[in-house]
């Protein structure tokens, strides 16, 4: 046979063999799926779905990010303060407790919020205790050098100057260098990026084009060059915590009632363990308390009449008891000498009580 013809015949035979193998492969895929022989497109879709499912299973088996701890506080604690000054001091104590114990989120809930568009003139408009508490908590969490840009003048800020600073790691001094800094975006030319005020002697340039007046976290790195030639990058607020292990402040959220605290969680999977605190709760010594492994823990504190009243006043929790709402219900200060424990006291007592159980649960993650 002519060598050229032999080569052509061999090539034809090879193509026929490849075609047959592909056909058998599609048939095997179809039999596995329990249907008709799959086309190449159907096989590709099947492979894509399988790959996506496998990636999702890996993500669920090895979730990213550190576990979070949230606290819920009834805004009615502010209503009991006899003056604006005392209300401000109370808010400051709650903020300090959250920072000391590295709380990731504070949810302030309102048992009886005012009507959104209720009657009454401007003179009658008063913030609820919950709204007031949210405002002060957000103000205190914000680094001092950003407050003037992010918070307009308000009558409820009259006594904030009396409060001790949180002094959290993200409240960086002007003379200090940090790998990350909080900043606020500025206006101006955006041809090369966005200028950001990060509390230094000069504003820095980030590569992203962002709207003015937005709070951002900027990766500063180790290069201390502040000229526009050194372009920085805006990163997620979780980056400092994930990369350096630093506590980077708390988020604040308002909820109209207790059920809103639980149902409107900012976390996609919600809170996977919810704890209520009350003098009527179960008494367990902290060293003997075993919490389950968690991704997002929520600890709730009641108002003047406790969480039981908050449950009764919530129309979404009709007929439910504390044990129906909370996975665990604890008395963190048994044998108390006073008839009542104030919320700001309960926060410090309870967060210290939960420190070791939370640490042990984190080790089992």
From TrEMBL:
The record's region (Disordered) falls at 1-67
Can you tell which superkingdom this protein's organism belongs to? Eukaryota
Basic residues composition bias: which ranges? Answer: 12-26
Q: According to the UniProt entry, which residue ranges have a biased composition of type Low complexity?
A: 1-11
Per the record, the similarity remark reads:
Belongs to the class IV-like SAM-binding methyltransferase superfamily.
- Protein name stated in the entry: RNA methyltransferase
